[in-house]
Amino acid sequence: MGVGSEEASVLTTMLLYIAQETVGRVATILFAHQFSQRIEAEVKFYRFFADIVNDVAFVLDCMSPAMPILGRVVTLCLSNACRAVCGVAGGSSKAILSSHFAKAGNIGELNAKDGSQETVISLLGMWVGGVVVSKVHGTLATWSWLVPLLALHLWANWKAVRSVRLNSFNTNRALVFFRAALEGRTLDMEQVAQEETVLGWPAASRGIYGLEPCYFQVGSSVQDLVHRVYAGADQPSQPASTVGHLVQLFCDEDYLLWFDIETGEALVLLKDTATGITQAKGLCHMLRCYVKARTLTQATGRDVSERVDECQGTDNAPETASAYLTTRHRRCFRLLADALHENREQWSVIREQAERAGWDLGLTNLTKTRDRRVRATGFVEDKKVR
């Protein structure tokens, strides 16, 4: 029962079991509630994360006999919580990867063969484990075997996750691909996988194009937009005027983009008609804003906002000289309009090149929080999709 003491009574064992199960099931519910919508986009991360928390559970189990009574209870409960999290993350990511590997739609056959493979591996593991346990005695010997085996397990799973070549864009892969696309290069799945990282952000997104900070979010809410716009406003009425100009600028698009030229922060709001292709297009537009801002800064050696003041906006920009807009917001709109004009002209070419390289833009998933949509008519309002 994992009690760790020969003096434990049946009642103590039962109460410990109930405590472990309670903590484990609560952890399952909380983890699923908080992270279930992120797993599909970051399937590689959560597949490897499941192995990490599973190994942490093994370590906690081995530590528990050396703990005092209260510490032992806490350790065993944490161990069960780790296994519960592993079950949610591992099971969900496995289902997503199964649909990826079932190229001919044969998910049933794939799962059946995968189950047989797991049975064989479990059987071999049981035999080898029986031999190892019979030969290993003492605390030092136990840890001397446990640590290398866990390291080998994580290394093998790391290599397995890294070998997967997904044909859909998440934020990580999209940043790598569109960064190269704006430089005139088209990367296939193999090339993107070489730059993609499983844990954390790729180098391409750490201070995108040298701008700091580089916070951005796809699938933001109207509240997030108003909050960012309000930070640069001088009067309470200015955020509403700025949002109205933004709706006018993006009236022919399925997304809204706000890019703050002074802080480098960007928000992409998805309209209720947005698709995966819309998310990819919005991210590409956002990167163009970063590129133009960096280019203006490097060309003059001055602050980017000062350089934008000297540039003329495109014909499709709203009347950014409106008295209701601050100087900072007018600069933002000039840059947004210029980048939008370029993005509209070049998007069809980039999309064709991406599809030719094997990417499915319709499967793009760049949202990491609750999926939100906005309805833009004369004003904008949030519309939760799920």
Which features would summarize this protein structure in a list?
UVB_sens_RUS_dom; transmembrane; 3-stranded mixed β-sheet; 2 domains; 386 residues; Protein root UVB sensitive/RUS domain-containing protein; mainly alpha; 12 helices; 5 strands; membrane
Characterization of the model:
The structure is a single chain. Strands 1-3-2 form a three-stranded mixed β-sheet, sandwiched between helices. It has a two-stranded antiparallel ribbon with strand order 4-5. A hairpin with a 3-residue loop joins β4 and β5. The chain folds into two domains: 153 residues, no CATH class; 214 residues, no CATH class. It is mainly alpha-helical. The protein is built from twelve helices and five strands. Belongs to the RUS1 family. Pfam families: UVB_sens_prot. This is Protein root UVB sensitive/RUS domain-containing protein. It is found in: Membrane. Keywords: Membrane, Transmembrane, Transmembrane helix.
Q: How do the helices and strands line up, and which of them pair or pack?
A:
Elements lengths: L9 H30 L3 H21 L5 H33 L5 H29 L3 H24 L8 H12 L6 H7 L20 E3 L3 H10 L6 H12 L5 E5 L6 E5 L5 H25 L3 H6 L17 H30 L15 E5 L3 E5 L2
Parallel strand pairs: 1-3
Antiparallel strand pairs: 2-3, 4-5
Write a concise synopsis of the structure shown.
By secondary structure, this protein is mainly alpha-helical. It has twelve helices and five strands.
